[in-house]
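Question (not urgent): is this output format expected?
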Amino acid sequence: MPGAGWAVAVASAAALIVLGASVAQADSPSPATAGSLQTAKIAGVTVLTNANGFTLYWFAPDTGGTSNCNGSCAAYWPPVTGIPTAEPGITGRLGTIKRADGATQATDNGHPLYTYVGDTRPGQANGNNLNLNGGLWHELTTSTAGQP
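Got this back:
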C-alpha cells in the first residue's frame, strides 16, 4: 500500500510524544500526599480525594492490605503516602501499610490508596474503571469507601 510506511512513521512519532509526556508527568512531583482526606463531587459522583483535591483510587488486585502496584505501576498510580486524617463526613477506617519499598501508604479499611498521573488537576477522575498495570482501577466513592 503506497504511503503506508509514512503513516506508520507518523503514528509511531505521535505515540512516542504521548509516551514521553506521560513519562515526564510520571516523573514530576506527585499529588499523592495523604494529609486530610476529603470529598468532592466529580461528574455527579461524590469521591474521596487527598488534601490537594486529587481523586483517590483503589486497585482491584490489591489484597490483604498489600499493595500490588510497584515499580512502573507506581509511577503512573502514585501511592498516597503519609498518615491520613479525615474531614468530617468521611466514613471508613483510615490507616497505613508499609510498601515493599518501605514507604508508608495510606489505606481505607486496609485497602491501599492511589492517585493517577492522568489526573492533572483536582476535579478529574480519568483513572476510573481503567484496566491498566495488571488490573482494574476504581475511584473511591463515598458509597464504596471502606468496601473496595
